[in-house]
Amino acid sequence: MSDILIVQNLSKSFRLSAKQQKLENTNEKVRRAVRDLSFTVKEGEIFGLLGPNGAGKTTTLRMIATLIKPDAGDALLDGASVVKEPEKVRQKIGFLTSELKLEEFFTPDYLFDFFSEVHGIPKDVRNARKKDLFARFGIDAFAQVKASGLSTGMKQKTSLAISVAHDPSVIIFDEPTNGLDVITARTVTDFLLDLRRDGKTIVLSTHIFSLVEKLCDRVGILIDGGLTACGELSEICGGMSLEDRFFDYYYAAKGEEKR
Amino acid sequence: MSGIFVIMKKELRRFFTDTRMLVTVLLLPGLLVYVMYSVMGDAMGNMFTVEDDYVYRVGVAGDSDLLVYMDVDVPVTYWDTRTETYTDTVDGASDPMLLLQEGLLDLYVVFPENFSEAFAGSVNHVNPPPHVAVYFNSNETASQGAYSLVTALLEQLETHFRQKGFTVNTDPTLTYDAAASEDTSAMFFSMLMPMFLTMLLFTGAQAVATESIAGEKERGTMATLLITPLKRSSIAWGKIAALTITAVASGVVTTGFVVASLPKMMQGMITMETDLYSIGDYILLGLVLISTAVVYVTVISLLSAFAKSVKEAQALVTPLMMVVILIGLTSMFTEGQTVEWFWYLVPLYNSVQSITGIFAAEPDTLGIVITTAVNLAAAGIGVFGLSRMMNSEKVMFH
Ligand SMILES: Nc1ncnc2c1ncn2[C@@H]1O[C@H](COP(=O)(O)OP(=O)(O)OP(=O)(O)O)[C@@H](O)[C@H]1O
Ligand SMILES: [Mg+2]
After folding, report:
1. Which of B2, B221, B231 sits opposite A103 (nearest CB)?
2. Does B170 fall in a domain?
3. Residue B172 is assigned to a structural domain of this protein
4. What is the ipTM of this complex?
């Protein structure tokens, strides 16, 4: 299978404000959130970025989704460069994170139509997809309720439906089950598996081992902005549990840093 | 291009289907002004005029044969219906000055003894003219009214009997002031409207633009928009266009309320003339309003893009609001618009000048064309800047 996403030496630093320095009890002026990161994702697989808080998962996904620009390096998504052709990349991806919100004033029905129109989807195609997705997520009954009146789970499901309104070939998902109850989380993971079955590629980030074990074909372990291991789940684990292997990598990386 | 319309449609829908927003931005400011003016107008009206059917209470002392002379040329009927004379009340112990102060009397007239003879003698140059004292209370509107009425009557009487051979401005059926009431109204409008229109346009623009830019940023919905394939410039243009329409709607509705309440505010002081302006004037006004609103909206949007929250945006916009009000006020102190064309090159000021001209019924068409062009160009530069800002992660994701 071909590589649909090629990440090449991505780097990103943030200038820390005085307030941030105080908050994080550090005197470094610059935080190197992502360091020289390279990996590839194959078409039709679910790829997981696994890492602790602050590892740089969100920063990496935001760069791939063209929300922020890398300081160095590039990523090619289905041949389009996130640096040079961000608009092309945006057409091909669906990006979902808890930081992207829906306008509370509008209904799921309107929002779905709006984002479909933004992507230039014809009306009949849009209506068919809407019917399908709304039925699958149980949004039907709430389609005319303003987003402000929806539960967290229903909002998340609406966001999910909208993020795939244009039938993107790559779905980028930051912490897919964060803040969801077990039932909604199950709906989401089932949907991701269905998307893979339909030939879509999924890049997700998480710190939950079980989620990786359940969903991912391949995994990259991200620690302090750098990839310490990357490969097939079975390769990485080598017969051990993912959790045990993760801590091996984690202490190895932290130890090296201290030396 | 279609991206612009998609954004515009969404923004307009956001505003025009939101009852709360419609009430607070469109209806409430106008209604507030209306109520305020009505109350102020009533208060001021009471201060400066007396009711048409008010009867002055005039105390008369001494030889009050005056009234005998009154059925000559002077409007006696007017005197009769407007005053009630008291001759007894004041002839007692009570101090007439006190009665005036307490408002029990509006006027107190003292004729000298044998006024009639003294008057006749003075006409024939036998003796010096007798003196009539008219006491009044300048703090009371009614007293002032009675004072003017009585002194006017006395003067007319005096003139009549001295037989000077002519009188001045005594025919009550004629208007002697050549200023047409249209001119007065136009001058009045041209002084007030620039401030009202620019201020209310700005208020409307501020309410919607901070919400649409800083609000979307604050709530995280801007990021959702930014990961779509929409061009940044489409988002910027779509928002600015929709916000301009909304601001103009809000400004015009609110100003409508203001104009409707002006007669209430000015009751009695000035006669309002409608039909002062032609269709052409209104078209020019439309051009100025739209091009002014687009400048306001663009500048407020740029400031809002810097802000992290709606609150911060509003704080950033407040100084600009002061500037707009100050510039609007300049029209109050100058009569008519400027004649130098280059003033129309200055955004914000050019709007005030153009509006002044239109309401003075002497629109400077060249100036208005310059104003429109300059404002649209300024907005274009602003929108370009806004697109750039939307591309900047430092600005969009702090
Ligand atoms: N805009 C920013 N300004 C300053 N520092 C930032 C910014 N964004 C991220 N960082 C820092 O970069 C590092 C990586 O952050 P990132 O959010 O990518 O981590 P993460 O792996 O997603 O963590 P989490 O599990 O907490 O979501 C962190 O130390 C974070 O504080
Ligand atoms: Mg994160």
Report:
1. B221
2. no
3. no
4. 0.90
Q: What would the pLDDT profile of B290-301 be if each residue is shown by its tens digit?
A: 999 999 999 999
What gap in Å lies between CA B170 and CA B193, rounded to an integer? 37
Distance CA B205, CA B297 (A): 5
- The pTM (predicted TM-score) of the whole model is 0.80
Q: Do A105 and B14 touch (CB under 8 A)?
A: yes
pLDDT digits (tens, 9 = 90+) for B23-59: 888 888 788 778 877 777 676 666 556 666 777 777 7
Structural domains in chain A, CATH included, are 3-254 (3.40.50.300)
Atom 27 of ligand 1, nearest CA residue: A53
- Check A104 against B216: CB less than 8 A apart: no
Report helix, strand or coil for A75: strand
Q: Which of B162, B192, B225 is the last residue of a domain?
A: B162
| Torsion sign (Cα): B334, B337, B341, B347 | positive
Mutate to test the interface with A, among B228, B232, B392, B396 (most CBs of A within 10 A): B228
CB B61 within 8 A of CB B135: no
The CA-CA-CA angle for residues A27, A28, A29, to 5°, reads 110
Q: Which of B304, B302, B294, B286 is nearest to B379 (CA)?
A: B294
B142 and B200 co-located in one domain:
no
Q: What pLDDT sits at residue A158? A: 95
State the total domains in chain B: 2
Distances (CA, A) of B229 to A93, A118, A164, B31: 10, 7, 14, 42
What distance in Å separates the CA atoms of residue B258 and residue B29, rounded to the nearest whole number? 10
If one compares B4 and B396, the residue with the highest pLDDT of the two is B4
